[in-house]
């Protein structure tokens, strides 16, 4: 049979229509996946591109909608050309379910209802007192560990691995560029991630609080103090994360903040372990001493592990244990997996929660180390250290409640 000149084009059109019809369900499915995508994961967040890192971002007290999924008002400093847009987490998968965790702090027992309003069973700690707490103002600064993020970003640790077997007393003069690192926008994003997750906690406990996001550079230049006020504190509470690498000035300023009467809350283990120097013009971090190395710009050599070990024990109350030395915790309400923890080293520490660490016998040199959340008074202020690497459980609902109770107890302007 002879085909007309219109037959071939018509057949092609029919085939195309059939193909589109058959693929339509998949196209709709992909569209739905785009429309109902889950919030950015940590991996996705790390790969976001940011403009020049902000030094300070402030969230006003009026921005207090905990049901909002996006924080749009993180204003950048004059050094930044764009602001952050951050996905905020919810407070547990089912807000109608009461947490089974009961936290004991100085004989006050806190539990939480679906409205996230703390209830106390202490006879003198009635609902009116709690209401007064919620109406207090506190100035809180969250400090993102940007120096540490840079050290981990294909830099210091590459050098450590290359020269792990170098004996003590021998100088290393090659690959020294690995001991300096410019802070990238990705480093800033990674460093801010855990800090930003605490915003809901603070706002739920103290809705009128003012929250400021700082970086290590901010602490280094003294931003936690009031200008022209003889270094008086600009904040009531300072919250640190994984500040493993800090400058000498930063270390001194944090210590001074506590001495002045501030409350320092330390979320993570392995803090103040090594000293770095920071070039504000190039935004570069360079190793000085600690993490078993020292570097003078011309050569590097084996040195001490924890940079300020005795001093840190004296005013902060604990020291870094070691990596993955704890097998497990027998008291583990947060389902935390041990890997980097602080152990109590000051006899004046008051233990809030002992996690009852279990360690292999060959790692216990003298006595079994105590790992726990504790408080320590230092001059006019106070240090509260979680003792564990809380970044890992920052979204754990039970941990959130525990952290909230710490804020209720220790935030100076919240306590009645």
Characterization of this structure:
This protein is of the alpha+beta class. The protein has two domains: 33 residues; 280 residues, Class I glutamine amidotransferase (GATase) domain (Rossmann fold), CATH 3.40.50.880. It contains eleven helices and 23 strands. The strands form six sheets. Strands 1-9-7-10-12-23-22-20 form an eight-stranded mixed beta sheet, with helices on both faces. The longest helix is centred in the first third of the chain and has 29 residues. It is globular. The termini are far apart.
Descriptors for this entry?
2 domains, globular, 6-stranded mixed beta sheet, Rossmann fold, alpha+beta, 23 strands, 8-stranded mixed beta sheet, 416 residues, single chain
**Number of helices, where a helix is a run of at least 4 consecutive DSSP H or I residues:** 11
> What's the N-to-C terminus distance?
98 Å
CATH topology (level 3) name of the largest domain: Rossmann fold
Mean pLDDT: 73
Cα-atom Rg, whole angstroms?
A: 26 Å
Task: Please indicate the count of domains.
Answer: 2
Shape: globular
Which architecture of the largest domain does the CATH hierarchy give at level 2? 3-Layer(aba) Sandwich
């Amino acid at each position: 049979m002879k085909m007309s000149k219109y037959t071939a084009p018509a057949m092609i059109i029919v085939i195309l229509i059939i193909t589109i019809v058959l693929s339509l369900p998949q196209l709709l499915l992909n569209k739905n996946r785009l429309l109902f995508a889950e919030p950015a994961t940590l991996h996705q967040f790390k790969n976001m591109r940011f403009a020049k890192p902000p030094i300070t971002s402030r969230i006003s007290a009026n921005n207090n909608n905990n049901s909002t999924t996006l924080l749009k008002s993180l204003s950048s400093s004059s050094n930044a050309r764009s602001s952050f847009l951050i996905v905020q987490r919810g407070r547990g998968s089912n807000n109608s379910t009461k947490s089974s965790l009961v936290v004991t702090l100085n004989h006050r027992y806190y539990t939480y209802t679906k409205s996230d309003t703390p209830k106390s069973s202490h006879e003198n700690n009635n609902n009116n007192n709690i209401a007064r707490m919620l109406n207090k103002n506190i100035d809180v600064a969250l400090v993102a560990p940007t120096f540490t993020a840079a050290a981990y970003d294909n830099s210091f640790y590459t050098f450590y691995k290359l020269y792990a077997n170098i004996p003590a007393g021998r100088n290393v003069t090659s690959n020294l560029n690995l001991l300096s690192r410019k802070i990238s926008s990705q480093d800033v994003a990674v460093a801010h991630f855990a800090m930003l997750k605490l915003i809901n906690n603070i706002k739920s406990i103290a809705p009128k609080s003012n929250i400021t996001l700082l970086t290590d550079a901010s602490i280094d230049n003294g931003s936690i103090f009031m200008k022209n006020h003889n270094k008086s504190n600009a904040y009531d509470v300072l919250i640190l994360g994984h500040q493993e690498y800090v400058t000498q000035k930063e270390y001194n300023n944090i210590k001074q903040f506590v001495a002045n009467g501030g409350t320092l809350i330390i979320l993570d283990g392995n803090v103040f372990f090594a000293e770095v120097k920071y070039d504000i013009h190039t935004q570069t971090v360079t190793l000085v001493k600690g993490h078993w190395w020292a570097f003078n710009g011309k050569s590097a050599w084996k040195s001490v592990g924890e940079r300020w070990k005795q001093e840190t024990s004296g005013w902060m109350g604990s020291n870094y244990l070691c990596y993955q030395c704890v097998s497990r915790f027998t008291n583990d309400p947060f389902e935390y997996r041990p890997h980097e923890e602080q152990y109590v080293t000051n006899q004046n520490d008051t233990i809030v929660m002992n996690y009852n660490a279990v360690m292999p016998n060959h790692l216990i040199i003298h006595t079994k180390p105590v790992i726990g959340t504790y408080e320590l008074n230092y001059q006019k202020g106070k240090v509260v250290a979680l003792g564990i690497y809380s970044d890992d459980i920052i979204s754990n609902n039970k941990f959130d409640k525990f952290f909230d109770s710490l804020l209720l107890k220790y935030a100076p302007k919240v306590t009645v």
